[in-house]
Amino acid sequence: MSHPAREREGPAPRPRGRGALFALLGFLALACAGFAGLGIWQVQRLAWKRDLIERVEARVHAPPAPAPGPREWPRIGAAAHEYLRVRLDGRYLDGRDTRVQAVTELGPGFWLLTPLRTREGSVVLVNRGFVPPDWRGAKAPRGETQVVGLLRLSEPGGGFLRRNDPARGRWYSRDVRAIAAARGLDPQRVAPYFVDAERAPGAAAAAPPVGGLTVVRFRNNHLSYAVTWFVLAAMAAAAAYVLRDERRRRARTR
């Protein structure tokens, strides 16, 4: 008696949606790891920013040091020099003032920059302070002058979404190299930084140019960013846990 041929048994078919579930779990795992990594990076940035703020605060209130000379110029950088309190001794160069557009706590107006030739023969641009738009004040002090202020790095390119226009005398940033060229100064002898002068002792509070208006402020949102990334990582982990638990519950009820 013949028997019908038995069909070969193949592998049990996968439940529908199982592959998609695994893919979703993998995506959530990657998302959790990525969000956690970003959170850790923001914590590291927070430590760096706090250290920077502490160093700058120490510089701003330290006794003034001699301004870096030509030998130090190639090494000028934000990490070691920005907002360093310095002292300059020399003479202002008359007739070479530059007005740079500014908005301060005193309102809109200009920064008044004047080159100062030091005793060693180099030239440093000094931001003597804020002047209102209609100011027609006196020239820079004559004779030997001492300036105390904060070292600032050059601001090339422009500002306020506008580019500097030296030909028309329109300046929107304190671009040391461009200002020096426009004023006929030897670029090899001009420092790659400028100095925000402090208000002279005994000077009237509102007498232009008003120095000492440098805003030393750093945005420090790294803690909130870190919390956000860690919350997103926790949400991704929670979603993965819920999906996995739901899959196990359904498998037990079959």
SSE diagram, text form:
Elements: H1 18-60, E1 65-66, H2 78-81, E2 85-92, E3 98-104, E4 107-118, E5 123-131, E6 145-153, E7 158-159, E8 162-163, H3 176-182, E9 190-197, H4 222-252
Parallel strand pairs: 1-2, 5-9
Antiparallel strand pairs: 2-4, 2-6, 3-4, 4-5, 6-9, 7-8
Helix pairs in contact: 1-4
Principal-axes geometry comes out as elongated
State the share of residues found in helices, binned by percent.
25-40%
Helices and strands: which structural class?
alpha+beta
Largest sheet: 5 strands, mixed, barrel
User: What's the end-to-end separation, in Å?
Assistant: 40 Å
Average pLDDT, rounded to a whole number, is 85
Strands across the major sheet, in which order? 2-4-5-9-6
Number of helices: 4
Total number of β-strand segments?
A: 9
**How much strand?**
15-25%
Give me the Rg, rounded: 32 Å
The secondary-structure element order is HEHEEEEEEEHEH
Task: List segments where confidence is low: pLDDT < 50 over at least 5 consecutive residues.
Answer: none
What does this structure look like?
By secondary structure, this protein is an alpha+beta fold. Among the domains are: 19-51 and 220-249; 84-197. The chain contains 4 helices and 9 strands; from the N terminus they run H-E-H-E-E-E-E-E-E-E-H-E-H. The protein has helices at 18-60, 78-81, 176-182, 222-252, and strands at residues 65-66, 85-92, 98-104, 107-118, 123-131, 145-153, 158-159, 162-163, 190-197. The protein is elongated, with a radius of gyration of 32 Å.
